[in-house]
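Much of our argument rests on the idea that a fold can be written as discrete symbols. The record that follows shows the chain in one-letter code together with its fold in token form.
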Amino acid sequence: MVYVCERVAGLPNTGLHPFGNATELSPEIPERDELVRLHRDADAAGALVVHVGVNYSSRAELDAVLRAVRRREVEHVDEDSHRFLLSAHVQAVDLVIRTGGTGA
């Protein structure tokens, strides 16, 4: 994953937008610190933007909304619930490549 992200970030006129819960990855994952750094420092500007889900799942999306409900009133979250999703800033995509992973 880090290899792909670094190559994308180095392409001319191409942006990288990692999203998800990189900081919640297990410290035992060898590339965790590098993924967190990429998540923090990535530049999503460019004619082509590659969105990369890091530690992202539908369960994580639901958890993000539930955390928002706990922090705010339900009505506030209900009015604009999509902005509390991990993928809130991901535009409609033309191509999705989903890597196999193990379920939690």
Notes: DSSP finds four helices and two strands in the chain. The mean pLDDT is 82. Residues 64 and 85 are 6 Å apart (CA to CA). The chain has one domain: 2-84.
